[in-house]
Write a structure and sequence with these properties.
This protein is mainly β. It has two helices and 26 strands. The protein has helices at residues 2-25, 278-283, and strands at 74-81, 92-96, 105-109, 115-121, 127-131, 135-139, 153-157, 159-166, 176-181, 190-194, 200-203, 208-214, 220-222, 225-227, 237-244, 247-254, 263-269, 287-291, 296-302, 307-315, 320-328, 332-339, 350-352, 361-363, 366-373, 381-386. Strand 2 (92-96) and strand 3 (105-109) form a beta hairpin. The chain is elongated and about 75 Å long. The termini are far apart.
């Protein structure tokens, strides 16, 4: 026991000496900031930035709030007024999120002062609509709106009119575009997509000129019909009779199920000398329509002078892939054209680049028919590349 105490005394003396030396060496040095020990926290926890530590040392970077923290619910407000600025009460205003699962929808009504407020809306882009019986309500502005914003509406009185649209054979089209124009105006005031299931439209008070277009490519139209509001209590109805427009309706159908690449629809008037070579007729004709890869396509060619026309589907280089002839007159003509698959050589593009680094010039190599008929496609010329 005595021997152990004798061994412990020197060790204690050595420790005291070391502490004294360390304290003496640091007496003149500046104080160092205490070291912060990071504390592990869940990633989803959002904390305010930490205050800097006392001392002259650099402060550690402050923590940022969680980026996924939901914003506080907000509100969207506005008013509904007449064109003269008078408030319109009782208008139903609804908001809907078109993106999201599921979409959220909230509704409210304007008060006696014409104002509304949609509250407790989560942060999102909302589309607003307003409806009221006997009124056309339109927003002053376009696009979605987020909570905290304002959107006003203008309400105008309207009258519901039931419109019937009929084809030349007496049947109704699946759909039509009906337009209305003020009698003193030459431009359409408005339009809507008419269907037999929804034949009614809301029109502002007053006489209107109604017209319609329909068909695969609007090859049918109607004369303008004047609609005058009837006496109170009488039905508000109008009828629009469609007629075939003067021109040629072209229906293109791929021979191989579908064509690849781009094809152009061209039309050329057949001269009086009777030349019916489609390659020569369509070579210099302007393209009226272009179509990408598809199985079929429809195009209406209007404003054609009377006479025989050659209509063909061509590759971008001008090679005829299918053609037909039709007489243009005051009535509607229909053409069925079978389209062959374009060849790879029909799409030659040559690009010339200045090797000295100057501005590049693009040269498009067009493949023009030349020589005898192509073996794969009788009646079609052999292509040659030119640039």
């Amino acid at each position: 026991m005595g021997r152990s105490l004798l061994l412990l005394i020197p060790l204690l003396a050595a420790g005291v000496a070391v502490g004294f030396v360390a304290g003496a060496g640091s007496a003149g040095a500046p104080a160092q900031p205490p070291t912060r020990v990071p504390v592990a926290r869940p990633e989803a926890e959002c904390l305010p930035p930490e205050p800097p530590l006392a001392g002259d040392g650099p402060s550690p970077p402050s923590r940022q709030p969680c980026s996924g923290a939901p914003a506080a619910p907000g509100s969207i407000h506005g008013s509904v007024r007449t064109p003269l600025g008078e408030p319109v009460p009782g208008v139903n205003v609804s908001t809907e999120v078109r993106r999201g699962d599921p979409p959220r929808k909230t509704e409210t009504r304007t008060g006696t002062d014409g104002t509304y407020k949609l509250s407790s809306l989560p942060d999102a882009a909302y589309y607003l609509s307003a409806k009221a019986e006997g009124l056309r309500v339109e927003a002053v502005g376009r696009g979605p709106i987020r909570p905290g914003g304002r959107l006003d509406f203008v309400a105008s009185p309207v009258e519901s009119v039931t419109v019937r649209v009929v084809l030349p054979d007496g049947t109704e089209p699946a759909e039509a575009e009906v337009s209305w124009t003020a009698p003193a105006s030459t431009e359409s005031t408005g339009s809507w997509s008419w269907t037999p299931a929804e034949p009614a439209v809301d029109l502002p008070p007053g006489p209107w000129l109604l017209s319609a277009t329909a068909g695969e490519d609007e090859e049918y139209d109607s004369e303008q019909v004047t609609f005058t509001p009837p006496a109170p209590g009488e039905p508000r109805r109008a009828m629009l009779a469609l007629r075939g427009r003067a021109g040629i309706l072209c229906r293109l159908r791929a021979e191989g199920g579908a064509w690849s690449g781009t094809i152009q629809l061209r039309a050329a008037h057949v001269p009086d000398d009777g030349d019916r070579d489609p390659e020569r007729l369509l070579r210099g004709a302007n393209s009226s329509r272009s179509f990408g890869a598809a199985k079929s396509a429809v195009a209406f060619l209007g404003d054609l002078r009377s006479g025989m026309w050659c209509v063909g589907a061509c590759s971008v280089s001008g090679n005829v892939l299918g053609h037909s002839f039709a007489e243009a007159g005051p009535d509607l003509r229909v053409l069925e054209i079978a389209v062959a698959e374009p060849r790879r050589s029909d799409y030659l593009v040559v690009r010339a680049v200045d090797p000295r680094g100057g501005r590049a010039t693009d040269l498009v190599g067009r493949l023009r028919p030349a020589g005898g008929p192509d073996d794969a496609h009788p009646g079609r010329g052999r292509p040659r590349g030119t640039a």
